[in-house]
C-alpha cells in the first residue's frame, strides 16, 4: 500500500497526520507485528501506536530519497513540490531511534541504504539532508550528541 498525490502538493503543505495512543516498550513488544509496523517512536521508550484502523499517515511509506518530512510528532509535510500521482514517502530515519521496526529497504534508489535501522539518524549525511525534518525526539538526540551529551 502507499499514499499518492491526487492533486499537486506544494512544499510545506501538510499531507497526512499520525494518531493513536502512547505505549511504553513493554506494551509495544506485546503488539502484533502489523501494529508495530504502524508505530512511531516519540521519546525514549515511548511510542505512538496507530489506532485499530490505520491513519492516513500509516500509508506513507519509507524512501531513502523522500519527498515528505515530519513537522512535530504527528504531521507529515511535503519537503518539496509533489506532482499528481507521485507516491508520498518519508525516510523512517526521521522518526525511528530504536530497533523495534528494522527492515530491508526495497526503494531501489541509488541512495538506498539497503537496510533501515533505528541508528540511521546518526548518519551525518542524513542529519544534514533532513535538518529541520526530524521528529522532536530525534532532533533532541542529535543536538545532545553534537554537544557530547547522551
TrEMBL record:
Q: Where is the SET domain?
A: 1-93
Question: Does the keyword section mention Transmembrane?
Answer: no
**Where in the numbering of this chain does the Post-SET domain appear?**
101-117
Gene Ontology MF terms in the entry: transferase activity
PROSITE patterns referenced in this protein's UniProt entry, alphabetically: POST_SET, SET
Going by the UniProt record, its keywords in alphabetical order are: S-adenosyl-L-methionine, Transferase
Q: Which residues form the signal peptide?
A: none
Sorted alphabetically, which SUPFAM superfamilies does this protein's record hold?
SET domain
Put simply, this protein is called Unannotated protein
Amino acid at each position: 500500500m502507499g499514499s499518492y498525490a491526487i492533486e499537486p502538493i506544494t512544499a510545506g503543505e501538510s499531507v497526512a497526520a499520525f494518531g493513536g495512543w502512547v505505549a511504553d516498550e513493554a506494551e509495544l513488544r506485546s503488539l502484533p507485528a502489523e501494529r508495530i509496523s504502524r508505530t512511531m517512536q516519540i521519546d525514549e521508550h515511548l511510542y505512538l501506536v496507530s489506532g485499530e484502523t490505520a491513519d492516513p499517515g500509516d500509508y506513507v511509506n519509507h524512501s531513502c530519497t523522500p519527498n515528505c518530512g515530519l513537522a512535530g510528532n504527528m504531521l507529515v509535510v511535503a519537503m518539496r513540490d509533489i506532482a499528481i500521482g507521485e507516491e508520498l514517502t518519508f525516510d523512517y530515519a526521521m522518526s525511528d531511534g530504536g530497533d523495534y521496526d528494522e527492515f530491508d529497504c526495497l526503494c531501489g534508489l541509488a541512495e538506498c541504504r539497503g537496510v533501515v535501522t533505528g541508528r540511521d539518524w546518526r548518519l551525518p549525511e542524513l542529519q544534514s539532508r533532513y535538518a529541520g525534518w526530524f521528529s522532536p525526539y530525534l532532533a533532541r538526540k542529535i543536538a545532545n550528541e553534537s554537544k557530547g551529551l547522551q
